[in-house]
């Protein structure tokens, strides 16, 4: 499919009725380039296509090539897909597989919601690159993002993207910040599961991720009578006049799942609700250390502590542990929110530092 989206983006356990359309963990693919060309015309490994562009002249981007999309050994379980963004002011990367329209047409009657979930590792969030990475659900023409998300390499901030009509603006594909500055920031150097969905009947777009309340955040889309036609992994320059981009960054994604559903099953909240709410934090209030424990053998992936102004004051990543200890002795006395990300979802706990 020829990519027409190249519009401005403005920052402003499954249930029985869910039907899996696509899954991908990349483990059967070979480490290396996913494609042999960049025009999006010849399928590469696993049937994936790559469209990579430096942008139209004049542009400072020079690094578009087949190395922009690679299968790497650094996935969430084994292998994953790594995208490299543009090294200048323009350019884009799209990786997709054909066949979604037929799968969507053959879905069970009443399943009017398309749901996409994927694990993404945002890195350290200290890059000088303005690149953004994520996943989009496109319409058939490729000129509307029915639902999508991006993550900024420089800050790890998560955004919702939707073809919509914000008050006082013309219709278009807009990027929405999800909280007051510094926004919702994914944990550093760890995989977080992000979910987006689009209801073709109500046009409601939903995003769920660590740091977001269980119900998710929604906007109302503006694309009437539009069925989903393609799911893409994406990367963009992220350049702005005020903050020009001059460096490329990379992010890794893994474990893609696309479903059709009659009701919200995004991130399977109902299936892991009891598990993640079993986490306990003690002592609370605390002076020096807080211990996070649970009785369900849920694995802790990361924690993020924010103050009441939404500023992230502490982050830690973990590997295959069910109980962790966090040093809070360096925090000022007060009330904080601790987001615990696990292999079964995320939960937020209020903590008090003496």
Description of the structure:
The structure is a single chain. A hairpin with a 2-residue loop joins strand 22 (334-342) and strand 23 (345-353). The chain has helices at residues 100-105, 269-276; strands at 19-24, 32-33, 48-53, 69-72, 80-84, 92-97, 113-121, 132-138, 145-152, 158-164, 172-177, 192-199, 204-208, 217-220, 230-236, 250-261, 280-282, 289-293, 300-306, 312-321, 324-327, 334-342, 345-353. Strands 1, 2, 4, 5, 7, 12, 13, 14 and 16 form a nine-stranded antiparallel beta sheet that branches. The protein is built from two helices and 23 strands. The protein is mainly beta and 354 residues long.
Explain the layout of strands and helices.
Elements: E1 19-24, E2 32-33, E3 48-53, E4 69-72, E5 80-84, E6 92-97, H1 100-105, E7 113-121, E8 132-138, E9 145-152, E10 158-164, E11 172-177, E12 192-199, E13 204-208, E14 217-220, E15 230-236, E16 250-261, H2 269-276, E17 280-282, E18 289-293, E19 300-306, E20 312-321, E21 324-327, E22 334-342, E23 345-353
Antiparallel strand pairs: 1-16, 2-4, 3-6, 4-5, 5-16, 6-15, 7-12, 7-16, 8-9, 8-15, 9-10, 10-11, 12-13, 13-14, 17-18, 18-21, 19-20, 19-22, 22-23
Task: Provide keyphrases for this structure.
354 residues; mainly beta; Jelly Rolls; Immunoglobulin-like; 2 domains; nine-stranded antiparallel sheet; seven-stranded antiparallel sheet; 2 helices; 23 strands; 4% helix; globular; disordered N terminus
């Amino acid at each position: 499919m020829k990519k027409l989206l190249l519009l401005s983006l403005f920052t402003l356990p499954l249930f029985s009725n869910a039907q899996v359309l696509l899954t991908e963990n990349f483990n059967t693919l070979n480490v290396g380039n996913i494609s042999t060309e960049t025009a999006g015309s010849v399928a590469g490994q696993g049937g994936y296509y790559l469209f990579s562009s430096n942008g139209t002249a004049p542009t400072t981007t020079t690094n578009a090539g087949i190395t922009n999309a690679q299968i790497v050994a650094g996935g969430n379980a084994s292998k994953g897909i790594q995208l490299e963004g543009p090294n200048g002011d323009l350019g884009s990367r799209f990786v997709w597989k054909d066949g979604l329209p037929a799968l969507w047409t053959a879905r069970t009657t009443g399943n009017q919601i398309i749901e996409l979930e994927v694990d993404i590792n945002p890195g350290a969030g200290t890059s000088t690159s303005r690149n953004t990475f994520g996943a989009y659900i496109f319409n058939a023409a490729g000129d509307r993002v029915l639902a999508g998300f991006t993550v900024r390499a420089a800050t790890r901030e998560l955004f919702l993207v939707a073809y919509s009509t914000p008050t006082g603006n013309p219709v278009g594909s807009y990027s929405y910040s999800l909280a007051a500055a510094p926004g919702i920031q994914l944990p550093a150097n760890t995989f977080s599961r992000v979910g987006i969905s689009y209801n073709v009947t109500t046009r409601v777009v939903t995003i769920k991720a660590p740091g977001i309340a269980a119900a998710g955040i929604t906007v109302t889309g503006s694309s009437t009578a539009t069925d989903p036609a393609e799911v893409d992994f994406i990367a963009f320059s992220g350049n702005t006049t005020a903050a020009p981009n001059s460096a490329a960054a990379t992010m890794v994604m893994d474990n893609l799942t696309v479903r059709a559903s009659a009701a919200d099953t995004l991130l399977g909240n109902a299936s892991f609700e009891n598990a993640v709410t079993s986490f306990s934090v003690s002592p609370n209030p605390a002076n020096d250390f807080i211990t996070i424990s649970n009785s369900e053998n849920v694995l802790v992936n990361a924690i993020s502590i924010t103050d009441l102004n939404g500023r992230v004051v502490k982050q830690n990543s973990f590997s295959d542990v069910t109980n962790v200890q966090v040093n809070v002795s360096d925090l000022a006395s007060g009330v904080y929110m601790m987001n615990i990300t696990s292999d079964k979802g995320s939960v937020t706990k209020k903590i008090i530092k003496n």
